[in-house]
Sequence to fold (729 residues):
Amino acid sequence: MQHTLSVLVENEFGVLSRVASLFSGRGFNIDSLSVAPTNEEGLSRMTIVTRGDDKILEQINKQLNKLIDVLKVIDFTDGSGIEREMALIKVTAEDESRAEVLRIVDIFRAKIIDVTPKSYTIEATGNPLKIDAILDLLRPLGLKELVRTGSVTIGRGAKGWKG
Amino acid sequence: MKMNGARIMLECLKKEGVDTVFGYPGGTVINIYDELFSFKEIRHILPRHEQAGTHAADGYARATGKVGVAIATSGPGATNTVTAIAPAYMDSIPMVIVTGQVPTALIGNDAFQEVDIIGITRPCTKHSFLIRDVKDIAMIMKKAFYIARTGRPGPVLVDFPKDIQVAMGEFAYPDSVEIRSYKPTVEGHPRQVEKAFKMILESHRPVLYVGGGVVLGDASEQLTSLARNLGIPVTTTLMGLGSFPGDDPLSLGMLGMHGAYCANMAMTHSDLIIAVGSRFDDRVTGKLATFAPHAKIIHVDVDPTSIKKNVRVDLPIVGDVRDVLTQMLKLTDKVKDKAAEYVSALSPWHEEISDWKEKHPLSYKSSTTIIKPQFVIQKLRELSDEDAIISTDVGQHQMWTAQFFKFNRPRTLLTSGGLGTMGYGLPAAMGAQAAFPGRQVITICGDGGVQMNIQEMATLVQNKLPVKIVILNNNFLGMVRQWQELFFDKRYSQTCMELPIDYIKLADAYGAKGFLATKPDDVEKVIRQGFAENGPVIMEFKIAREEKVLPMVPAGASLNEMVLNA
Fold:
């Protein structure tokens, strides 16, 4: 089962490699990982999408918490989080396909951010399933390049992570 | 007062109460050594290899319970410590390793003797720090010692660039340390402890399965009282030996692959396993699917990741083992009558265990012509001091020691349990002897492992560390040979150490004494001669070459499927 974990970490030297090497050393999967500083000085937040049964997820959670620089681990699998991802997509767009690309972009409320006579570059934002869906539609038209940020997730409701 | 970074480092060690360090000089720690030259409060022991120095710091830590400290230079000096850091991590030994590093401006430039030691040691340290400013030295050292000794202890590496050692700064050691992302749980949850106690009183075939956590957590006294008050039999892991008196009638000895028959049978037939400071290692459980099929499991451990990692657990208690055992003792005191009733109701279980003990005790065929290694261990136990510290290397001799020495006190067995590092025994004994100059320190080795750090003979002689080195010599890498005999049709591929070494001459070359026993009648005489010497000694015993460690649970078999004689 896929899980989305938010990991609040001290912004210390080498913290990303500690987390990454924990996953590789213990044979845990990483589907995506994104990391950036938060509003609090010295704290960064990682969003890690991973897979495994309950036993593996319990170990991942505990092992992350065991790292000295990890302040908090939040598991958003129960639907308590809002998940978003951005993709930058370069797609072939010539002659009749130019209009089709524009229609798809419109339906998905995406944006064209670069144009050439032969291509469009698209910015799409949404939950990862929506990104998958637009990619499925664009793929037959000729996908030249794709960059995805990986998921970022935040909890629903008025409360912040500290409660 | 302003001082350079190297001096600040030494002042930090002094503030932490460090009186002995094990280290090896080099280009990027030369400034530390220059300061050390006139710094008389810290005794520095120079090993002949950084791996050995770091093992010595580990042995020092295991024997004393204090944080062991090792120093090495950058590059090869630092990488040489890795094989000694990894076993300390596996066995949760509190250590601080200070490595020199090239100047900060050169980091990443492939400078001479530069290596990313933090990267290399990341999976085998509890934490690590790179010092990047002279102002940070004191706080980093404070944190390093705090992290090393608290929670589940472990080694912490501090990488110390040369330019920071030279930079001048003020020294002020922080009184306290607060790490918001590191708060180990100390107190076991009282309601969980109560539930556990209730489960114990409802059980009919309980076993205390005890690991190194009880030794490290200084909880032997509490464990012993609890076991005796409730009449619960105790089996220990290799790391747990000494936490409960091996001579006690409730002791089942060690369990697992080379455990006692009664211990493995008790685990298999138990209805309640109380795991304390142990982690259900594969050498302990055998085949997981058939492990303790009838038992509920209570697991007490300071490290939550140990719980439910390998086996299902019915009742987890995260906390310091001494705190949890103390809580349980208090509960026992409250219901003395009930506890007495419980103890007497256990008598069928005790009888069953006695039957197993009698049916297949740990034994060997004695001989009047060839020295049996088990006999040497028994004689060592008989003739050594009650508070002697024993270190072992890794292999057959380690298992014979675990089986036949019957350790009575905690912190008297130093052995590389988790990682199984050959070459550990001699330097670990060196560290223990440095901590306790007046106690008898004996290292029991095979002829394979002892040669992996034999150069430390020089350190022993130079520093007047009178370690007694016992070599059980079968001219084989005996444990691998045993596997080849049992599982590979006696194809002894590369396990015969064909060149006989004259260990007596070798001892002589280092300025130590050597004694040789070739027949059973020599054994006691040689041990007495060795123990009578004031300096370091080699006692070599030419043992039965193809003697096996038994019983044995073959890898992947169930605990109760022991090979008893083969």
